Amino acid sequence: MKQESARPSKREQLIQTAVTLFAQNGIHATGIDTIVEHSGVTKKTLYAHFRSKEELVLAALRHYDGQFRNSFMRQVETKARTPKTRLLAIFDVAETWFSQQSFYGCLFINAVGEHSIPDTSLRYVCKDFKRMLTEFILKLCIQMGARNPQRLAEELSLLLEGAIVTAQVSQKPDAAKIAKRVAAVLIEKQSPHETPQT
Amino acid sequence: MKQESARPSKREQLIQTAVTLFAQNGIHATGIDTIVEHSGVTKKTLYAHFRSKEELVLAALRHYDGQFRNSFMRQVETKARTPKTRLLAIFDVAETWFSQQSFYGCLFINAVGEHSIPDTSLRYVCKDFKRMLTEFILKLCIQMGARNPQRLAEELSLLLEGAIVTAQVSQKPDAAKIAKRVAAVLIEKQSPHETPQT
DNA sequence: ATGGATGTATACAGATCTGTATCCTTTATG
DNA sequence: CATAAAGGATACAGATCTGTATACATCCAT
Prior knowledge:
Two copies of one chain form a homodimer.
Chain A: H1 10-25, H2 32-39, H3 43-49, H4 53-79, H5 83-99, H6 107-114, H7 121-143, H8 149-169, H9 175-190
Helix pairs in contact in A: 1-2, 1-4, 4-5, 4-7, 5-7, 5-8, 5-9, 6-7, 7-8, 8-9
Chain A binds a DNA duplex (30 and 30 nucleotides) through residues 10, 31-33, 41-45, 47-48, 52-53.
């Protein structure tokens, strides 16, 4: 019988450690030895679970994908009740994310920056992550009755990306506030009001 | 007398090669030997001009900084004549940038993704690049008579960042079009009313 | 022309990287 | 208890990385 929530398996320990180190120092700059040291797992065990570093990288990205999405969506849905307020809450959640000590930008954006060759597994994982996030936003746009939900979702996604990068590079966590202000304008424009103003 | 535009100096060759390889494969993944091979300059000469790889990295980033800004601003100013149309032209120029074969995202964003420690020379260079770009936008906002030029400049900068990352990660060059559409809304909102000026 | 600066070519030192092998201990389960 | 699976500790192979050293060629100005 497997212990599910008792103590984490070696595999989970490795993946968690890898996620942390990749986020902090990048993928190429993080060696296997460093992961081994920080995870308290030997190299042999690592290569028993993953055939290569690349496989560990993919596992780490996929794990973080699910983890982040769960956490992010749950926070947004907890912070607000209606679709419209939830769309705005996205940027509040983002701001608390940006303000964390352990904020090193988006793991997937950084990963793509290190891996320029398209149509690789890594690139698919990163692309997928962004697509899923956009779909989450899209659902809220549909629920709020936006006139062009697809367009609004793309716009809000782009705003979120911009906020992430601005917070990271320019070290301005309040980039989230700027994005939120713009988001409010776009959402209002697409709201199913019966009074069109010019 | 130095030959200015005759043939490039070894220093320039090295920097140009470094910029290209860093953009394509990232900084950590690009070794000195690779730069040496592609530049047609020996390792000794490299270390005669730069004391370390880090110094070459900084020189490459600074060089690209000036190069990109010059090219980008000139293109924007060529494409449109009035401040308002120039602000929109930014996103047209961006789109042609995104559509290039050699588009690997923003060199500075990618560099920060690989170097998480703040308050380093590299991070300053990247921050500076973004600040200068925002200032370029700010000047246009002031010229067009925006009611809150600082705010508009921050918003448009954020949109540009979002477009860059979306084009890179999701491989959608038309992210520029999305950003432009939003930009148009924001610019219109801040445009001075059609009242005769003094 | 000639000496100093600059460059080429290449070998090498020392560190680090990925991945494998060896030997031993722990642990789970029939 | 017995046995097999899993893991710990460590050494090692081969490649690659940064940076240095050695020996020779080329160019330019006094």
